[in-house]
Amino acid sequence: MMIGHKLDTSKTDGMLKNRVKQFFKSENSLLIEHQDLPDYRKDTKQYIFGPVFRPTVEDHKYCLKSWFFKHHEILNIWTHFIPAIFFLYKTLTYILEILTSVNPTLESCLLPLFTISAFGCMALSTIYHTFNCHNENMYNCVLCLDYAGIPLLTTGSIIPFLYYAFHCVTTEFYGFNIPYIFIIYALSMSGYGVFLMIFTQTETFTNPKWRRVRAGAFFLFGFSVMLPLFHISRMYSFDYLVENLKVVHLCLSGLLYTSGMVIYCLRFPEKHFPRVFDIWFHSHNWFHLFVAAAAWNYLETIVKIKDLTLVCLEA
Ligand SMILES: [Zn+2]
Questions:
Q1: Ligand 1 centroid, distance to 192 Cα (angstroms)
Q2: What pTM value is reported for the model?
Q3: Which of 56, 112, 226, 238 could form a disulfide with 94, with the two C-beta atoms 3.0–4.6 Å apart?
């Protein structure tokens, strides 16, 4: 009885292995070269020429199945899906802490604000890289979502830092102590962020002709954080900036984001090693990894700042 059962299992295992092998073989044989992609999916500066691109298949199931076979986008999907799960877990943990807290405050919402924006950005990116081979309408739709993730993450990152930098600067308003500088900066930054999120949904924005304007708008948004940084550098001593506001750690996140962008723009390493990095570790993969590392470092930094800036010093 037992022997018969064992034989059946090994037979089933063998069949399963064959089916998996067949699946990978058949899906890989369908992959096409960059030149065979429809124009809207072509990248003007593409240095990947092997048959590693998914064909356009108007089937959601095919797009989802592509998480499990080798192609140009596979690592783009996983390098943002795994961090998305991490940030979702963190968000749920923080929300649970707020719900079970005796005295929840505005400050308790800052960490989940960042983690949910990081989750949103990575999840939207995962959706884009999964479904950009569906059809043209779907491509345009998921591309807009991917772009909207950038201002979402930037806004969610800036606001917690601004709070810790300016929460001690208050003015009395109808009996309440209002951190007015924080409010002014937070409203301006989130206003710009929301504008960018809406602007990214327009056809003009996704047009390849506006690539530089697009990059400029995002860069300007990221760079606008320098204005409050300059402001606080005038308010506090250098030691306070380094010790309490962890400016060096924040700069590390900035450096990681910038390095990711530079690698992406230089198309390194695939430009210098043709066909070597067609599937694994091409520039877009590195860009994702750097963004994920920057976001993780930023979260660690904000957690440190949170504990160090609770007491307001005399400025
Ligand atoms: Zn991407």
A1: 22
A2: 0.86
A3: 112
